Amino acid sequence: MSQPRSVDADVVIVGAGLSGMIAARTVLAAGLVPVVLEADDRVGGRILTEDVMPGVSVELGAQWIGDTHARMFRLADELGVETFPQYDEGETSYDLGGSGVLRENEFHTRFADELAELERVLRRLDELAADVPVEAPWLAPRADEWDVISAGTWYDNQGLSPVARTLLEICTVGILAVPTVEVSFLHLLFTIQTCGVTAELFAESEGGAQTTRFVGGTSEIPRRLAALITDHIVLDSPVQTIEHSTDGVVVHCRGGLVARGRRVIVAISPTLAGRILYDPPLSGIRDQLTQRLPNGSAMKAFFVYDEPFWRADGFNGQLISDVGPARMSNDTCIPGDDHGVILLFLEGDQARTFGRLPVDERRAALTAELVRHYGAKAATPEFYVDGEWSDRQWTRGCYNANHGPHVWTTYGEALAAPIGVIHWASTDTATHWSAYMEGAVEAGERAALAVVDSLP
Amino acid sequence: MSQPRSVDADVVIVGAGLSGMIAARTVLAAGLVPVVLEADDRVGGRILTEDVMPGVSVELGAQWIGDTHARMFRLADELGVETFPQYDEGETSYDLGGSGVLRENEFHTRFADELAELERVLRRLDELAADVPVEAPWLAPRADEWDVISAGTWYDNQGLSPVARTLLEICTVGILAVPTVEVSFLHLLFTIQTCGVTAELFAESEGGAQTTRFVGGTSEIPRRLAALITDHIVLDSPVQTIEHSTDGVVVHCRGGLVARGRRVIVAISPTLAGRILYDPPLSGIRDQLTQRLPNGSAMKAFFVYDEPFWRADGFNGQLISDVGPARMSNDTCIPGDDHGVILLFLEGDQARTFGRLPVDERRAALTAELVRHYGAKAATPEFYVDGEWSDRQWTRGCYNANHGPHVWTTYGEALAAPIGVIHWASTDTATHWSAYMEGAVEAGERAALAVVDSLP
């Protein structure tokens, strides 16, 4: 461990993820001095681009933005990071309910009734979500009713056919990264409302959440942001204790660093924020909230081929399956590079089950899935890499905090409300596209502006 | 903060609750040297007797043992702590489903059908619980089915009348200290099986969990236990970091104390165990488990009167109500003292809602409840005290860790399994009377014996 050091600032910020760095930039723009304490040896938090071969990078973390992510488009523009559209030509490949592998057109014909059922439920979700105030979901007129059942129980009560129910589960787990039995139905409706409508949340094209990627990789965003505030970031400094009073804070890191400030912004996920020792201790309500907001379970696995052979066969690289370890996939090729890159998602139970296996076994199971959908060429990738987020000490799960039954209505008020000189950021506290990069920016700005307003 | 100090031991134990001290005693008996690091300025953890006036004490924490708590009877005997039976003469007072206040006999006549419904459901719960292996609930033949719904959802599906459903909720919240919508049905069945049958769990007499109290207060148990190992306990030492390797552990406390040992036993609730920084970091499965085991919400409020006037009116001091802030009460007089002491329980939503109020408002609401049941004399207590556990920094909720849907089947294996030189205790990891003092003793002994076995 390094020798004790100390640093003084106006605002101490815990976490150099997107939310924390946006907060720091906002504080700096107001003429105040921030210091960002990052536990890891890098910035970016849940954003992590990995270069895997010349010209090819993969996104182990956040990857896309969508058309309504105005803050992120503005940020990318300011930072000079260019964007490109997600590849979306050709058909999706399906294997659901024992159908065997079917091309999109075949699937839509065979399961037209089930898709109509799904559509009906999504419309119903949109109607109900419209009644959830994103600033205070617990004030929804039917909040008490919606918060005592899980999303899964509500789904089970819709009289859906097995295939429609499975499709609904896959769509939802793709957003929440936990099985629907683990989250409150109110939280599902909040998630929908925070993003707009189900069509935006679940779609990958035409106005959805995943239309656009960043040239050079998503990590260009935190990398360039960090460059603007580089004198104000300290890496390898896990915060363990926050002493606070009306006069300010003294923040202690493992390794001995002590940071002093007038305010602190805790810009990490609520479950990690709950691990810090606060002196004096926080209220029971705030503490019990952080006991009840577990992060989800998500893995991304990438196969790199010499070419995107599925495109020539008329596939868009997306699969939807209830057979193999991956429920969904995406074409994640890099424009201007000839390699074919395909991403498989392991979310919820799949992340937990296959995440525990040795990488070779996991890779073999995923390869088999790809071969079934895209043929023998899928068996011989040039490269494979995957990334599990719950094993990463300074993240401990993706994509975000999930509210189980009864959490929003009982503890929701404590999620983002400042406590004295302590403010809270991270996308988990956002009201628009919470759980996305867009929400991280919103939360960082909101917390920073509140801090600036509170200082004489 | 005090100066850095250091201590060497064979076994470092985190937490001087009952489980940690039992572990220390067991380690010591095997000829090894323990050191117990306690965050608080006292031993006892969730046991806390408070002397409120000469001759009168109240139990803000654990209070009773039951006839099948063999380890606790043996421990009390060894320590020379005598026991006395819970007062149980007279009638319970009811106010449920808009009935107004009714004496037990009236209530049983008016609601005979509803009580028969309740009895039928309890028998059904006993039948189902018998299939849950307490060492590994996730291996129950129907574990997957039972773990995807909440206990509340299962209750809702039993076709119960409103009064029977309410009684069932009150009984269950009295055990779990969270609303039934927050816990997995499998966890409820585990809880029943770990204790025997519902009759033992829910009853206060004749073989139930709450038949017997300790002369001098429950704190006599930890106090005398601490006296036996007093050289091995360090108070005011919150553990923040555990460095571990095959060679042993280096445990860092706030304030600078460093304890070195060959093994560590973490004898605090799982949610608090998850707040320690482990180096190297623990697996994602263990970490995500501790994100998903929130402590319950429980308060106890005591009124002390010049005499137990309710006894003269033929009441046993128990009330069951769905009207006021307290759903249940108990006569908690001290034998040999003339005062009347009554205990009101606020559990789950009641603890959360009324726990946030100023004490005067809470006391007024509780007083009104007592007056409705026991008459005007209840309005003029000599003394009032209550205790909330989620506000206590080193406990953060009672009675124990609650498994929401999907936790047992997904993460259960990580609850008590040692990780290298790290072992886990606390009643939350027990298999017999988990959540009770009896379970704390079992878990402490089990962890200590495993540690002793593992040392050359």
From TrEMBL, chains A, B:
Listed SUPFAM superfamilies: FAD-linked reductases, C-terminal domain, FAD/NAD(P)-binding domain
Binding annotation for substrate: F345
Molecular function GO labels: oxidoreductase activity
Residues that bind FAD: S19, E38, A39, V239
Domain Amine oxidase: 18-451
Residues that span the membrane, as ranges: none
Any one Pfam family match given in the protein's UniProt record, by short name: Amino_oxidase
Cofactor entry: FAD
UniProtKB keywords: Oxidoreductase
Family per record: Belongs to the flavin monoamine oxidase family.
Protein name per UniProt: Monoamine oxidase
